[in-house]
From TrEMBL:
One family name in Pfam for this protein: Mur_ligase_M
Annotated source species: Palleronia marisminoris
GO terms for MF: ATP binding; UDP-N-acetylmuramoyl-tripeptide-D-alanyl-D-alanine ligase activity; UDP-N-acetylmuramoylalanyl-D-glutamyl-2,6-diaminopimelate-D-alanyl-D-alanine ligase activity
Name recorded for this polypeptide: UDP-N-acetylmuramoyl-tripeptide--D-alanyl-D-alanine ligase
Keywords linked to the UniProt accession: ATP-binding, Cell cycle, Cell division, Cell shape, Cell wall biogenesis/degradation, Cytoplasm, Ligase, Nucleotide-binding, Peptidoglycan synthesis
Domain of life: Bacteria
HAMAP family per the UniProt record, alphabetical: MurF
Gene name, Swiss-Prot/TrEMBL: murF
Length: 471
């Protein structure tokens, strides 16, 4: 059975189909489009109408457009609408209405995607589960996730993000979750909100979209928890280290490559393991365990299944970079280069502080600017020098004008190299890390921390054979 017929898509969008067609998926990118997809010609950095001919040539079942694109015949399979973004939202709304299962929506300043992926792993063995791809959490990502969801899905996991005020509530009302989670509230997007209270109010607006009888789950340990509590009302359930939390975390043990958590909920004990170190991961997992019962899953099975989750690339994935296979020289890389704010930076520093390098190796942090922090940005960077985990690091190398504040605040024996840009620091990477080291790379995506990850990986791609063999 097709995901979309031309008749259903026209009904959902108010558009006009040029011919009958049926689509098995929905795509906004010709690079990943599969034959049989409905191509949605969104306008972002480029106008999607420029790629309609290419999409149809690659086997798209049809294209959702607001006009006849150049190079496309009038009898091509099209769905013509007044506005493509509005039509995509119509597809999402129609898909949500016909969905037979339950919906979990997740937001938070830190941990949205990690929690979503943990939930996908934890619930997939119990329910027929679909989840948002990557970080598809904005004005087009949420309706696209809904539009891609088969009606027979038993559990859909939606991620909802924001950059400015007023973005979360409309997306939550579109998704209509049965359970909504706020992972945490931290200093992210301060430029747009000014203070943590404003961020908390925006995050709490995810509860506005809850279905009748839905459950609001949120962190009990925050200075802004009262704001979340007021928004949740009688539907609220909490997780955290606070004794009064509905799911109370009693003990967190950080090992080199794991986190062991002991918790209590409704007078019974819960023991769960996460396959990466991090107190923040213990909290993310706790929110999923708390969500299990209202989503029709088993909390105990959920707690055990979480151990199968692994950090994805750019979000704390740990890997070995072989520097010399003959001599057995290597280093350990923690790739946390996808994004950064003060809370996630602190969590990353906790992680490397808990990690054990090889004999003779060092703990090295390579950090780039955290962005969108507003007028307090320099002081927030400087304050990282006071993080308890810094005491266990041998060197901290930094890149970016904001990270200069941290560089200057570090004690001389820990102060590594500073460069204006990630590109400049990447050019020196061979002199900054050595065999046996465990190296954390962390920073905002726009500050190009990923270039440093690539540079470290490339250390393992050099030809290290003896000169006679390499000729």
């Amino acid at each position: 059975m097709s995901l979309w017929t031309s008749a259903d898509a026209a009904r959902a969008t108010g558009g006009c189909a040029t011919t009958e067609w049926a689509a098995d998926g929905v795509s906004i990118d010709t690079r990943t489009l599969a034959p049989g997809d409905l191509f949605v010609a969104l306008t972002a950095a480029r106008d999607g109408h420029e790629f309609v001919a290419q999409a149809l040539a690659k086997g798209a079942a049809a294209a959702l457009v607001s006009r006849l694109p150049e190079g496309v015949s009038e009898d091509a399979p099209l769905l013509i609408v007044d506005d493509v973004q509005t039509a995509l939202e119509g597809l999402g709304r129609f898909a949500r209405d016909r969905l037979q299962g339950r919906v979990l929506a997740i937001t938070g300043s830190v941990g949205k995607t990690t929690t979503k992926e943990m939930a996908r792993v934890a619930f997939s063995g119990q329910r027929r589960t679909e989840a948002a791809v990557a970080s598809y959490n904005n004005h087009w990502g949420v309706p696209l996730t809904l539009a891609r969801t088969p009606p027979e899905t038993e559990l859909l996991i939606v991620e909802i993000g924001m950059s400015h005020a007023g973005e979360i509530a409309p997306l939550s009302r579109l998704a209509r979750p049965h359970v909504a989670i706020v992972t945490t509230v931290a200093a992210a997007h301060l430029e747009a909100f000014g203070n943590l209270e404003g961020i908390a109010a925006e995050k709490a607006s995810i509860f506005e979209g809850l279905e009748s009888g839905g459950v609001a789950i949120y962190n009990a340990d925050l200075p802004t928890t009262p704001i979340l509590t007021a928004a949740a009302g009688d539907s609220g359930m909490t997780f955290g280290l606070t004794d009064s939390a509905d799911l109370h975390i009693r003990d967190v043990t950080l090992a080199d490559e794991a986190t062991i958590v002991r918790a209590n909920h409704e007078d019974y004990d819960i023991l769960y393991r996460i396959s990466a170190p991090g107190r923040h991961l213990a909290l993310n997992a706790a929110s999923i365990i708390l969500a299990a019962k209202p989503l029709g899953a088993d909390p105990d099975v959920t707690a055990q299944a979480i151990s199968a989750w692994q950090p994805p690339a750019g979000r704390g994935a740990r890997e070995t970079v072989t520097l010399d296979a003959v001599e057995g020289r290597s280093l350990t890389l923690i790739d946390d280069a996808f994004n950064a704010n003060p809370a996630s930076m602190a969590a990353a520093l906790d992680r490397i502080a808990a990690a054990e390098p090889e004999k003779g190796g060092r703990r090295i942090a390579i950090l780039t600017d955290m962005l969108e922090l507003g007028p307090e940005a320099r002081s927030l960077h400087k304050s990282l020098a006071d993080h308890s985990g810094m005491n266990r690091l041998a060197q901290v190398h930094t890149a970016g004008p904001l990270m200069r504040a941290l560089h200057e605040a570090l004690p001389s024996d820990r102060r590594g190299h500073w460069a204006e840009t990630a590109e400049e620091l990447a050019a020196e990477i061979a002199t900054l890390v050595h065999s046996g080291d465990i190296v954390l790379v962390k920073g905002s995506k726009s500050s190009k921390a990923a270039l440093l990850v690539d540079a470290i990986r490339e250390l393992g791609h050099r030809d290290r054979r003896p000169a006679a063999e390499a000729r």
